[in-house]
Write a structure and sequence with these properties.
- By secondary structure, the chain is α+β, with helices and mostly antiparallel strands.
- It has 18 helices and 23 strands.
- The strands form five sheets. A six-stranded antiparallel barrel has the order 1-2-3-6-5-4.
- A hairpin with a 2-residue loop joins strand 7 and strand 8.
- The radius of gyration is 28 Å and the shape is globular.
């Protein structure tokens, strides 16, 4: 396909005085223009020189000429990021997937761009895809190579960061890594070539949807930071819409080519209508969060986003999630409802073009409805437009500071369940899911092969990031609940760094622990535990040290005495983490078996009265200032942020564990256990 070849590029080392003579000097691999001044390739291609981010991009600026242009570029983003597992550095198996890199040109130049699919998981087993790339040199010259492969299947599940598509049926050449993979039946780029098989036909590719896993920049109410993912795809969609809609241009566009392909049954939009729509959606500011976009989609009839992984991130991704949900006029109605939801969506950051974008999209919606749909439905759309136009500006004000938890709707949290393998000490099985206040859990990823403790942060980085993206909002990050057995309650997950250079998890979001191996309890005990939890949240909370009196270590009271403590009591344990008392573990067991759902203790206990006194005083202030159990995880989160930032007044909280086990949110598979007579 000529349109694909026109946008395919070569990546070369940034050698001084380099002239693109086609001999292969400094040749690293292939890539392609995904948006104006943006090149997508493999990370192992662009980053072959460990920390070197400067490259040269070589391509034909004029598709009718053999002359080549060389432009300097810089690697802006890689997946995984440098320093993360699979990042730069010698690795026997090469870069870990996704193995993607985005290169930004350092000067403007005219060039062609591919059309990238907005459909999730576009490469399905059994389909045929077309590939393009550069290889060589042959006879002293680099050569462009094209061919077809069959999609055989994949390595890894949908939430696995290292998921790769298996290709077979043709020989892939050295140097083709980073080239585009095209679905010829739909006329769109669906992936990136990653590797070839030595001595065999076929290789692997990465689905284009893996770009959705790029890190999400932190959100501040004053100034939205640059989001490379959104910037690239907004530029991509505007590029194609501008070229298709331009009355002055006579060049053949991707929409022209796609319009000549056989029409798929049930298609709601023609290629030209789709490109026009995507261009209008690209004029809106992006969704304020993945969580907000998922809520918007789930609010549409017959749309279920639970199995879309990676989760949709931009407006174009949301549109792709609607394909094949309905057929015919029903499919078009669904798309138009989605457009109206975009118009009415929250835009907490001021955006001068938002009003114009809304008017433009409404005109497109009205035209499509007038041409194809009933008068009743058109009237419903007009009512929605009127409501959106006259909606107060309250939903467009700056968001609350990230320290404040979201209150507008049901709060989601991420659950990490760790289980120590009894027959294989030091190794853990794990499960990650997204939970809500109603007790429902959406599985995200799991691994029951046993992971070493030292490897857990790196292995969990990608699935945790995906889970966080599904929950986080500008108003505040989602809580991470860590469910572990009694012997692991001191596991310092709040100090983990998912990638080298990242802040500790506890400085990024609230992190609490729960016990996953509670012994069988009676229904009466469960009722008492719920009552204590409910009244703790409603009463004035007070912290009380249970294993310490003026710095002198004591035994935790017996169960009967613990059950008589006021419902607003939040127990403090000063010496649980020291290991100096053999009954420390038994004291914690008594505490948890007495129905307490909230407690604080130190993984490193105090060695003298002065240290304990400071801990007592500061912890008591923290509990009292929190006012409710709901706010306590966020208060501890603020302290952990302060420790990371070096604020001396927060150092007393270093190593504090927050036990937070809401009986109204039973862990998956434990509800019957707790209620057993």
């Amino acid at each position: 396909m000529n349109l694909v070849m026109a946008a395919t590029v070569r990546i070369h080392r940034a050698e001084p005085g380099y002239a693109p003579d086609g001999t292969g000097r400094g040749f690293l691999g292939s890539g392609f223009f995904i948006a104006p001044s943006w090149v997508l390739t493999c990370a192992h291609v662009a980053m072959q020189e460990e920390e070197e981010r400067e490259v040269n991009v070589v391509f034909r600026a004029d598709r009718d000429s053999a002359a080549e242009t060389s432009v300097a570029g810089t690697v802006v983003a890689t997946l995984p990021e440098p320093g993360a597992p699979g990042g730069p550095g010698p690795r026997p198996a090469g870069w870990a997937a996704p193995d993607l890199a985005l290169i930004r040109l350092l000067r403007p130049v005219d060039h062609a761009c591919v059309y990238v699919t907005e459909r999730p998981a576009a490469m399905l087993p059994g389909g045929t895809v077309h590939y393009v790339g550069w290889t060589g040199p042959r006879d002293g010259q680099l050569a462009a190579v094209t061919g077809d492969c069959t999609v055989k299947g994949m390595f890894g599940g949908p939430a696995d960061a290292e998921q790769q598509i298996r290709l077979g049926g043709d020989w892939l050449e050295p140097g083709m890594s980073g080239g585009p993979v095209v679905d010829l039946a739909r006329g769109e780029v669906v992936g990136v070539l990653k590797s070839r098989l030595d001595g065999e036909q076929g290789g692997t590719a990465i689905g284009i949807e893996r770009l959705r896993t790029m890190p999400v920049p932190g959100i501040t109410p004053e100034d939205p930071p640059a989001d490379t993912y959104q910037a690239v795809f907004h530029a991509h969609d505007r590029y194609h819409a501008d070229r298709h809609n331009s009355p002055a241009s006579t060049e053949r566009t991707w929409a022209d080519t796609q319009s000549e392909l056989p029409v798929r049954p049930g298609r709601a939009l023609s290629p030209k209508q789709r490109i026009d729509l995507l261009g209008r959606l690209a004029e809106f500011p992006p969704p304020v969060s993945t969580r907000g976009l998922l809520d918007l989609l789930d609010g549409l009839p017959d749309v279920h986003t639970r199995d879309h992984r990676p989760a949709p991130r931009g407006w174009r991704d949301g549109l792709g999630a609607l394909y094949e949900v309905r057929d015919g006029d029903g499919a078009l109605e669904l798309i138009l409802r989605y457009c109206m939801a975009v118009i009415a969506a929250d835009r907490p950051y001021g955006h001068p073009s938002a009003a114009g974008a809304a008017q433009s999209l409404w005109e497109w919606v009205r035209r499509m409805a007038d041409d194809h749909l009933s008068r009743t439905f058109r009237k419903e759309l007009a009512v929605l437009w009127g409501a959106a136009r006259h909606r107060p500006d309250e939903h467009r004000r700056p968001a609350a500071p990230p320290a404040e938890p979201a209150r507008r709707r049901e709060r989601l949290f991420v659950l990490l369940a760790l289980e120590l393998r009894g027959w294989e000490q030091g190794r853990y099985d794990w499960r990650i899911s997204v939970g809500d206040t109603l007790g429902d859990f959406l599985p995200v990823a799991e691994d029951v092969r046993g992971t070493a403790l030292a490897d857990l942060p790196g292995r969990l980085a990608a699935p945790l990031t995906e889970a966080f993206r599904r929950c986080d909002e500008p108003e505040g990050p989602a809580v991470l609940q860590v469910a572990v057995g009694r012997s692991l309650l001191d596991l310092d997950v709040d100090t983990w760094r998912l990638s080298p250079g990242d802040p500790p998890l506890g400085a990024v979001r609230p992190v609490v622990v729960r016990r996953s191996d509670q012994p069988p309890r009676s229904e009466e005990w469960l009722k008492e535990r719920k009552a204590r939890w409910n009244r703790t949240g409603a009463a004035v909370m007070r912290a009380e040290a249970l294993d310490c009196d003026d710095g002198i270590m004591m035994s935790v009271p017996e169960t009967d005495a613990l059950r008589t403590l006021a419902y607003g009591t939040v127990p403090l344990l000063c010496h649980y983490g020291t290991g100096t008392r053999p009954d420390a573990a038994a004291g914690l067991d008594r505490l948890l078996s007495s129905g307490f759902g909230v407690a604080l203790w130190r993984r490193r206990g105090g060695d003298g009265g002065a240290v304990c006194t400071e801990f007592h005083r500061r912890a008591a202030d923290t509990v009292e200032e929190s006012r409710t159990t709901e706010q306590l995880p966020y208060k501890i989160h603020e302290l952990r942020k302060g420790v990371h930032a070096g604020r001396i007044e927060t150092f007393w909280s270093d190593g504090v564990t927050l036990y937070y086990d809401d009986p109204h949110q039973p862990l998956p598979g434990t509800e019957q256990l707790l209620e057993a007579p």
